[in-house]
Each structure stands twice: as C-alpha cells, then as structure tokens.
Task: structure prediction
Amino acid sequence: MIFAGVYIKNPLFLAPMAGWSDGPFRRLCLQGGAGLVYSEMISADGTVRLQKKTLDLARFDDHQRPISLQMFGADAAIMSTAVEIISRYAPDFIDLNFGCPARKIVKRGAGAALLKDLSLLQKIAAAAVKATHIPITAKLRSGWDGESINVVQAAQRLQDVGVKALCVHPRTQTMQFRGAADWQLISEVKKAVSIPVVGNGDVRKPEDAKKMFAQSNCDAVMIGRAACGNPWIFEQINTFLQTGERLPAPTASHRIEMCLLHLHQSIETYGEKRALSLMKKQIFLYLRGLTNAAEIRKQILAANCTMDISTILESYIHSQS
Ligand SMILES: Cc1cc2nc3c(=O)[nH]c(=O)nc-3n(C[C@H](O)[C@H](O)[C@H](O)COP(=O)(O)O)c2cc1C
Result:
C-alpha cells in the first residue's frame, strides 16, 4: 500500500519507544512482518548541537527500512535546523513527537506539553515541513488532561501546514499509561482530516488490531509494548487480518533463538559492554511465560558478559529438546 506517498508492505507499524526501538529490534520487527518501524525519539536540541549520543539514535541501515526517525523539540527554528540535519540520513519519514508524557520532556515544553499550545505545535510542524523534502508525520496524544481533549483541532492544524500523516495514541498526558486508550478519538480524528491516520494504544493481540481498524477506520495500526520480546506479533496480526487464522505461538526454542539473534545483533551494533546493559531487559521479555523463566532470569541478571548469557540461553534450548 502507499502510505503518505511511500510504499509500505502492510499497515502494521512498530511504535517509537525510547530505550527499546533501536536498530537491532527494528530489524527483527521488520523481519517479523512490520510494515514500518520508528526510531527512538531524537532530541532536536541535541541534533543541532551535533551531540554524538543523539545522532547515534538516527543511524540505521537498509535492513531497517522503511523507517521513520522521530524528533522532539519545543522550538520551531531549532526543529527546522534539526530536521535539515536528520534529512541527511535519508529516512523514509520524519515524525514529530507531540505525545511524550515524560516529565523531563514536558518540562522543556516538548512532547505532550505542546498540546497546551496548539499555535506553537503548528509552528514547529510548519518549520519541519519547510525544512525537508521528506514526508513529515506527527504522533499525538488526546490532549493534556481530561478537561482539554484537543487532538482533533491539533490534527487539523497539522494537516493545514502540510503534515502528511498522523498517529493518535488516545490517552492524555496526565493518564501517562494508565486507563484505557479511547479508540473513539482515533475515529474522530480520521473523520476530521483527509491525511492517513494511524491508530495506537493497547493493541496486544490480532483481534485487537482487527477491532481497532473496524472501530476507527484508521489506515494503519501501531504496536508498542506488545511487540517487545515478541516481534512475531506483526506476522500473527497480518495473517489473522488476511485469513482469520491464528498462527500458533512460537515454541520456547524459537523464542530463545530469536532472543539470541537479537543479542548478537545488539553486540554487533554496540559492542559487548553496552549490549550487556541494554539487552537484559529485552531478554526478560522473551522469557516471559516460559517454564523455569524465573530461574533463568536470575542467572541472566547475575551474568557479567554476553558470552555467559548466550551459554545460559543455549543450554535452555537443549534442555527443551
Ligand atoms: C518504554 C516506552 C518508550 C516510549 N517511547 C516513546 C517515544 O520515544 N516516542 C513516542 O512517540 N512514544 C513513545 N512511547 C509511546 C509508544 O509509542 C506508544 O504510543 C504507547 O506505548 C502505546 O502503544 P502500546 O499500547 O501499543 O504500547 C513509549 C512507550 C513506552 C512503553
């Protein structure tokens, strides 16, 4: 399908997730059937200062396409320069984060804080659109709090300045991740704009995705937490949407093999030391629900090198066969 001018093979997207949606994980999700993957959020301020740590977040290779690099910032001029710099990495999309509820982001006036100032939000988006030929998209929450739900107005303003697609995570900033995502708001945004709308929030299984498409008429569904330790979810949903069939859950060995692949790609990308610290939390999610998971978790927690982790995981596979 064509999504905002770019060919994508299906309408199931991996959500931007700071600390999670890095290169190795994006690659596995694309192999696991995702149609588009998003980077972790990248600071516009850090980008214009050419901070190495920030720019590292924008790196990707062709195994990670199609990709959207997500930016956050609170100033239109800075965003304009940052978008110009990020465009040199040639992502398929650049996404603007108007939804992050984290304190350290909103206290700088970025992320969901911009929902309190739609004029500034629109100015930032307009500056981003003018700064690049790459399609600019945006990801929104419902509003700041229950008394100020304004995602429909925000969506219209963004469309007016040339934003090419929108993603709606219908929770307010004050909800953080509590309560349920209000999918009705996705449908209201969809009715109010003519650009594609991506629905997001609480899709955990194939039936949820089907329901979100049906209830909101959204053009694509974005999956975050349910993909962590579970990159098969995209293929499971794709199959279910196309055939109504539920693929069997991956076996314990298959889960661990995927986990090992993830670990090795992480070592290749970051080197041994950083991969060790980044990967433990990811591995725990692959282990979720497996027999003896608590014991293996303990061993992995105590491991001092990735070689030990590989050995623990490999002996687990042998113990299963
Ligand atoms: C650990 C974590 C990090 C996140 N980081 C980002 C981010 O960098 N940018 C963003 O727009 N949303 C971020 N989100 C929000 C997700 O993209 C998504 O909107 C949210 O998790 C709801 O979708 P889900 O129910 O499928 O997880 C993050 C969520 C989590 C759990």
In short: The beta strands are 2-3, 6-7, 12-14, 36-43, 67-72, 93-98, 136-141, 165-169, 197-200, 220-223.
